[in-house]
Design a protein that fits this description.
- With 247 residues, the chain is α+β, with helices and mostly antiparallel strands.
- The protein is built from 9 helices and 8 strands.
- The chain has a 4-stranded antiparallel β-sheet with strand order 5-6-8-7. The chain has a two-stranded antiparallel sheet with strand order 1-2. A two-stranded antiparallel sheet has the order 3-4.
- It is globular.
Amino acid sequence: MKRRDFLLTATLSSAFLKKDLFSSSNEIYMSTKEWNTLVSLNKRLKRLKSYVGYANFNILSYHSALYYARNYPKIGEFTELELQLMDKLFYEDPSSYGFFGTKTCAEVDNVIAEKDVVKIPYTGHYLFKGQPEMDYKNLLKDVGPTLVLTSGVRNVIKQLSLYVNKIYYLKGNVTKATVSIAPPAYSYHTISDFDVGRKGWGYKNFTADFATTDEFSKMTKLNYIGMRYDENNTDGVRFEPWHVEVI
């Protein structure tokens, strides 16, 4: 039996439970056991990001993450329970949480070669060379200098860390987390897409308020990009006006 197949049939694989069996809500929460693992995993991933740097963390591979954690005490080696949880969050079918997007990455150890990406100055983010980089440059011309790249390439570890942190923020509510951010195997940031915002807007760039900006209004008139998650998307994801679909 392959390691991931074993992990997915281990004790943790059935540890997601409804918070209240008598509730009419279909929201699924983590069990106490898995929540405790998630808390420690979230802290370790933050230490890892701090060690390798914000930009490098965006394209860090799974195996590189394990290497750094194993060899640098400030990070600390991933525990077996943390490894099991990471594999579960990557390989499980998220449709039970209401997410119906397309799988974009087949393996947790996906590698993004530096030769295939370009670092965008003053942003801490990368874009894939080719169409994504070209689209961003055209957006700067057509929308104007107030537009900024807010998130670019995200390899599995980066997407996993965002997903884990969202579950943590939502106190173990996995259903709500998958509405806010794609599970780690389902992010288009791993293969093409990127996020933009309005300079100086901070966190508001990741809210529906971005749809009220002049920048967004100009973007809707452009035919060389799309909107991955509009208000009527069938993936089960919230409205994301900031998310640029590379077409």
